[in-house]
């Protein structure tokens, strides 16, 4: 479903992604973990060209794009293959939960309003938000807003769902409700690529985990195996830091 070859991205003189090669199968759930600044989110954003790679090719399903030579039509075609769920929801503040879903369908896909409404309501029900269809984002909790954002991502029927730290902006008690929706989607054979710091979730929901550091893929493997028995020293150190108790004096 996804095939990335020799993908590189620079910001000025800083090389954030260095010759990334990655293959993800249809229906596979892959979690990307690693320290801040390792290139995790940049990799995700390059897959739908929110960030423009400097070199390499990206293939999603049947759409292949050479990042050094492509036109607007090729860019649009690649973007149609995936949908992204952002850390901070990115909902329209002046639209209801339902309108946040139907607006891109009516404007972007020219779907009839009644059809878009019925489809939007079915998606809200799917993420447990049907009762909040007519509420505005400001009246919703962070977890509820993120569930609406997931419904909006599903609305365009993407081949791949991209999640960029979907729970990192949430209060701890709201994290669970979003992870439950993602767990449900994982069981529906939807191809998902998730940048996350939720190690337990990654361990039990992902098929495979990729550990990134300094712009490269350091280690990848079956989720439980990699978390419980990492092979590379950098992976071991990263996971150890997450579990070590902090010892300090005031």
TrEMBL record:
<dbReference type="GO" id="GO:0016887">
    <property type="term" value="F:ATP hydrolysis activity"/>
</dbReference>
<dbReference type="InterPro" id="IPR003439">
    <property type="entry name" value="ABC_transporter-like_ATP-bd"/>
</dbReference>
<keyword id="KW-1003">Cell membrane</keyword>
<dbReference type="InterPro" id="IPR003593">
    <property type="entry name" value="AAA+_ATPase"/>
</dbReference>
<dbReference type="GO" id="GO:0005524">
    <property type="term" value="F:ATP binding"/>
</dbReference>
<dbReference type="Pfam" id="PF00005">
    <property type="entry name" value="ABC_tran"/>
</dbReference>
<keyword id="KW-0029">Amino-acid transport</keyword>
<feature type="domain" description="ABC transporter">
    <location>
        <begin position="2"/>
        <end position="239"/>
    </location>
</feature>
<dbReference type="GO" id="GO:0015424">
    <property type="term" value="F:ABC-type amino acid transporter activity"/>
</dbReference>
<keyword id="KW-0067">ATP-binding</keyword>
<keyword id="KW-0472">Membrane</keyword>
<dbReference type="InterPro" id="IPR027417">
    <property type="entry name" value="P-loop_NTPase"/>
</dbReference>
<protein>
    <submittedName>
        <fullName>Amino acid ABC transporter ATP-binding protein</fullName>
    </submittedName>
</protein>
<dbReference type="InterPro" id="IPR030679">
    <property type="entry name" value="ABC_ATPase_HisP-typ"/>
</dbReference>
<dbReference type="GO" id="GO:0005886">
    <property type="term" value="C:plasma membrane"/>
</dbReference>
<keyword id="KW-0813">Transport</keyword>
<keyword id="KW-0547">Nucleotide-binding</keyword>
<dbReference type="InterPro" id="IPR050086">
    <property type="entry name" value="MetN_ABC_transporter-like"/>
</dbReference>
<dbReference type="InterPro" id="IPR017871">
    <property type="entry name" value="ABC_transporter-like_CS"/>
</dbReference>
<comment type="similarity">
    <text>Belongs to the ABC transporter superfamily.</text>
</comment>
């Amino acid at each position: 479903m996804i095939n990335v070859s020799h993908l590189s991205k620079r910001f000025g003189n800083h090389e954030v992604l260095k010759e990334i090669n990655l293959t993800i199968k249809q229906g596979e759930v892959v979690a990307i973990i690693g320290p801040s600044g390792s290139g995790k989110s940049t990799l995700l954003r390059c897959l739908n060209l929110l960030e423009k790679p400097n070199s390499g090719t990206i293939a999603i399903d049947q759409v292949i794009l050479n990042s050094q030579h492509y036109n607007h039509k090729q860019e649009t075609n690649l973007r149609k293959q995936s949908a992204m769920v952002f850390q901070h929801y990115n909902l329209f503040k002046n639209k209801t939960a339902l309108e946040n879903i139907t607006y891109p369908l009516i404007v972007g896909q020219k779907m009839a309003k009644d059809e878009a409404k019925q489809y939007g309501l079915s998606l809200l029900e799917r993420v447990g938000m049907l009762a909040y269809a007519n509420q505005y984002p400001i009246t919703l909790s962070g977890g509820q807003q993120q569930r609406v954002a997931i419904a909006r991502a599903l609305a365009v029927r993407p081949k791949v769902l991209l999640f960029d730290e979907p729970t990192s902006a949430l209060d701890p008690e709201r994290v669970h409700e979003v992870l439950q929706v993602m767990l449900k989607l994982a069981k529906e054979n939807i191809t998902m690529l998730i940048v996350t710091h939720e190690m337990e979730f990654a361990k039990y929901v992902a098929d495979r985990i990729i550990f990134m550091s300094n712009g490269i893929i350091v280690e990848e493997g079956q989720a439980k195996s990699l978390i419980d028995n990492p092979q590379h020293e950098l992976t071991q150190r990263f996971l150890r830091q997450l579990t070590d108790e902090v010892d300090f004096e005031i």
